[in-house]
Amino acid sequence: MIRYTKLTFDLYRNVILIFMTLSLFACDKDGNPLLSALSFKCEIDGVKYKDQMPLVIPPGAKRSPIIHHVIDNDAKYIHFSSSLKREENPKDEGSVSFGFRIPMDKNIVVGKTYNFIPIDGKEILEGIDNLIYLEGSLPFVRLLNVDTFYYGNGTVVFTEFDLESKRARGKVQVTFPSELQNTKSEVHLNGEFFCQVQRAY
Description:
mainly beta, 2 domains, five-stranded mixed β-barrel, 2 helices, 12 strands, 14% helix, globular, Lipoprotein
């Protein structure tokens, strides 16, 4: 029992030391994490936003941007998610979450245009009201700002999608409703992504 306990302790200690070493090598001279090539870059009404995955990620940490390939008894779809921050000042407030979902009755076709149309009258939702979009495998594209969901009209075109190499690239163009509904203004998002595809059951 003592031998097993010591072995377990040594194993955990070595794992922590290895991760700390990797973390040191994965930072620049200012202590900022080195970034991988996986990213989502876009403009929202002319303001540049970016989400770029670090080179080294702690176990259990959230990966972003990423596509989850979901298969369950009721639905089969892919879901892209990204936590965007302004390029000018990433530590400043103004970060938003972006995501889209596409049903996968068939495999994703590279070069095909996939369209998103929100449910009429359900373009701006708060809290659990957005669950109407999560039932089944309804396609949607949305922005989350604080606790308000904005569902938009738009398209995504994949330039690469490979479940074996677990990689995807593509371009998105979306128009979202603005909170200034009385002026009928809209929010425009254009961007490109390169991310991992992760299987989720």
